[in-house]
Each structure stands twice: as structure tokens, then as C-alpha cells.
Amino acid sequence: MVKSKSSENELLFVPLGGTEEIGMNFNLYGYGNPGAHDWIIIDLGITFGDDTTPSIDVILPDPRFIVERKDKLAGIVLTHGHEDHLGAVPYLWDQLRCPVYATPFTAALLRSKLEFEESAQDMEIIVVPLLGKFDVGPFSIELITLTHSMPEPNACVVRSPLGTIFHTGDWKFDPDPVVGLASDLGALKILGDEGVLAAIGDSTNAFVSGISGSEAPIFNNLSEMISKCTGRVAVACFASNVARLKTIYDAASTNGRAVCLVGRSLWRINAAARQTGYLLDLPAFIEAEDADDIPKDQVLYICTGSQGEPRAALSRIAANDHRQVKLGKGDTVIFSSRKIPGNELSISRLQNKLVQNDVSVINDENGSIHVSGHPAEGELIKMYQYVRPQIVVPVHGEPRHLKRHAEIAQNCQVPETILVKNGSVVRLAPGKAQIIDQVHAGRFVLDGPRIIPLESDVFKDRMRILYNGVVVFSLVLDASGNMLGTPHLTTHGLVEEDEMPGVLKSISEEVEDALISMSDTDVMDDKKVNEVARIIVRRSFRYTHKKRPLTTVHVIRIKDGV
Ligand SMILES: [Zn+2]
Ligand SMILES: [Zn+2]
């Protein structure tokens, strides 16, 4: 599939997810003769459904390209534990069946997700230490610790005989990340001196000037905010942000408040963190049911649901539907989070409900109680000054982010930048880096327990039903093709009960007329009758309801003597 006239070894980068989008990261590196490359995967994440995929929460990358080459797949290396980097491993691993390499916190999170995934029970998870070095297939990997909005964000140095790749994962430079190590700038300088062929990296905040900001100052700002509250306080944050859990805990206890976790994913992350040596200086968090007797001004809840997710704790609290936690007049909800683009409406809906319950709502208006985990322009510049790559391939961004990231790299005198999309096959070496092919890179949706292609008829029909409704038209014919009795018309999502007799009458008459005008041979052909009736039904709804419903026609023929 990868075209090359040469038989010499080559070094390839193939993103199958996570470019021209933020989410679903899925990167392949290949090394070897054209047609016989050995492969590794770095990250295998999910993305979440949006208003273009109603009823779907989880979207997965289509792994077909690498499944077809799985005998040459040496392993999956995970940079960190965010869903957009490891969320697809439990669902897709069964098709790949190779070792998974992760640092302790990421491995603990992955294990906690495997509990209910039968097909992934025999997954070999190889726990590698921070700053670890290990070989996977033809590559020698070294991890460099960076900082991010969760513990253990690892950049991967991928060494091959044709050059060294620096795969950043998600990162920022934070001199005081509160939990975990600060970015290992020394290792970056050494790497730059050794020489980096290509940097493949995070573009999320390429439009943000300056730097992303440190976690440490949030403590003071939050603590001051909490000190002004007299009722109950709830703080919404991203569950995976372990440093923020500590910051919130410290700010609460400074103000004499006990801290209670509300939401399953917070407890899951808390368990993984404590298991792997984080948050050990904090006492255990309190369960919501144990907080009932604590006076209002001595309790603080940390809640999931900062993005207005309907099933998360905060939405249930706002709807007065949470068994243990009730908020009302005099209470305050602080959003220690950003609004992820696309979630603005659901966040507004949530905040309106809170306000209707007389709860005060505080947002992060000026970055005082939330900082991003991704590099702003100033950090990208600093990174390229350290690492000095020959080639930069921006990933982890929408097309505009990738383009802006490439411009920043060019301004840093990076000689080559390449804009890729999912499925681009980039030959990084030998010779000038270039895109040499485009391979399949689709999407799957998690539909209940099944994984089906986004382009499948099942999912297309679902969308059609949602927007246009369903019609089933059944007619009975005698052996000569005459209509017997009145046909049956069943519709869903289209026709009011009192409209039905009129709609049925008009369609039935039109179909009967059409049957009369068909030739004797055609009217004996069920397929032809079906098609004629289907066209009439569809045309009728297009005209009367301005809809294109999913239409099914049943033709039942009563033979003589039956
Ligand atoms: Zn991340
Ligand atoms: Zn990410």
C-alpha cells in the first residue's frame, strides 16, 4: 500500500486519528523495507459524540490499516491516561493483541477500565518507569516527563537507524505542577544536542499567545473565593486533573471545609492516583452520604460534570435528582474548568438550572481558577529552541490549529513542516520528508455494546429515522395484481393520529391507480410493485410533510386457492 520504488529502509509516520481534530489520537510509526515495515502505535484514544452523532457517546478510530498488518505490530505505547489517548484500547485491543506499554498511573487507569471488557482480559500491560528506556520492535524508546493536566505525561523519544523522532504527547511547561514532576528541561536540551529528525506534537493552544500558566497560583485564588462563601460549596473540575483535586482540597481545608468527592470517575481517578503514589499526603476524601451531618459552611463537594454532561453528578444535583447532594439558596458552585468548544449550550443549560435553584455560579472568567494543560505559543517556541528538530508535524488540533502550529515552527527556523490528515503516510526519512500515500482512516461508533462503522447503513438509517421518521406501507394483492382490502400504513415520528385516515386514503388511491396502469407482466412482479408503491409513499411525504422518511413497503400476494 505504501508506494516507493526504493527497497532501502524508510521511516514512516501514519496518523490514523487525532489530526484535523482534537480527540481520538492514534499514531503509527513504521520502519523497514517498503511493504514490510515493522510498526508501533503511540496512543489509541476515543473522541466523544456531538450533535452530528445523536445517541452516540463514544467514537473510535478505525484500526483496519494496522489490523491488516498486525503480525508486524510490536506494541502500543501510551503517552498518558486521558481518554483521547487511551480510551479506545479496551475496545480495539482484541483486534491488535500486542503488548501495551504505560507508566504506573496510566497503567492503573487502563486496568480500571478493563474490568468489564471481557475480550481484553489477557492484555499484557508492561509498566515502564518515568524516564524509562525500552525497545519496542525496531525502535528504542525513551520517555521524557513533561507537565500536563494529569500525572505522568510522557513525551516519547523514538530512536531508529534513520533518525530520532520526538513525539510530544500532550504537554506544557509548568515549573510547579503541584502533583508530579516538573518538565525535564535537562533531558530536552540533551536530546536537542543529540539531534532530532522530527517532532510530532500538540497543537491545541497554538492560537494562545504567551504561556499556558502554572497550576500553583490557583490555590490562592480558589481559597480566597471559598473564604467568601457562607453556604455549601461545590467545585466542578475535570476528574482526571489530580493536581486540581489537591489544589481544591488544600483551598477547602484552609477554609475549614471537609472535602467530599461526588462522581464515579473522580473516585476512579482518586484510586488510581493513590495506588501509584500520588495524593498520599491528603487524608481520604469523604463519601457524599457521610457529609449529611456536616454544617453547610464546613463542607465542599468536588463534582464531575463541568461540561454539563447530563448523567454527571453536577447535572443531577442541578436537577434536584441527586440522592445525597442538594444545593439551594446560599450555596455556590465554582467551575474550575474551561468550556470545551461545542459544550457551551449544555454548560449554559446546567448553570441556568443552578441559578433557578438560587445557587450562585462562579466561572473561571480570567484564568484565575483554571489553567490549560497544553502549550501556548511561548512554550512551543521554547520547546523548539531546546529540541531543534529538522521536521515538525503538527498533530492534536483542528486544521486551523495545525496550520498555526506549523507557522510557529517555521518562525523558529524549523526547516521542514508538514500538514497531515488522518491516513496520511509521511516518509520522514530517507530524503526530504513528504506525504507519499493516503490510507484508510475511518471512524467507528460505540452503539450499545457493538462497534459499528460511522458510515454503516445501520447508523445512516438511525440518523435518517431521527430527522425524518419511519413509514411502513403494506398492501395485499390477488393473483392478478388487484389490491385487496385497504393497505396498512404505520408511521413513527411523522403523522398525528387525526391526520392518518386522510394520509392513508390519498396514498392508497394513488397506489391503486398506479397498479391499474402497470402492464400485466409488471403487476405480477413483486419487486416492481414494491418499487412503484415506495416511490409514491416517499413522494407523498416529501410533498405533504417535507420529509424523506425511512420507507419500507411490504407486498403480500394471495395466490389462487390460498
Ligand atoms: Zn491529555
Ligand atoms: Zn489529548
Can you offer a commentary on this structure?
The protein is of the alpha/beta class. It contains 16 helices and 27 strands. The strands form 5 sheets. It has an 8-stranded mixed β-sheet. Strands 9-10-11-12-13-19-20 form a 7-stranded mixed β-sheet. A 5-stranded parallel β-sheet has the order 15-16-14-17-18, with helices on both faces. Helix 14 crosses helix 16. The longest helix is centred in the C-terminal third of the chain and has 19 residues. The mean pLDDT is 94. The site of one zinc ion (ZN) has 6 residues, from helix 2.
Question: Outline of this structure?
Answer:
This protein is of the alpha/beta class. The chain is 30% helix and 26% strand. The radius of gyration is 29 Å and the shape is globular.
Bound molecules: zinc ion
Helical residue percent band = 25-40%
Q: Number of DSSP helices?
A: 16
Distance between the termini: 58 Å
Catalogue the unreliable spans.
none
Beta strand %: 25-35%
Oligomer: single chain
Which strand order does the major sheet show? 8-7-6-3-2-1-21-22
Any idea what the shape is? Answer: globular
Q: Helices and strands: which structural class?
A: alpha/beta
Total strands: the figure is 27
C-alpha Rg (nearest Å): 29 Å
The averaged pLDDT comes out at 94
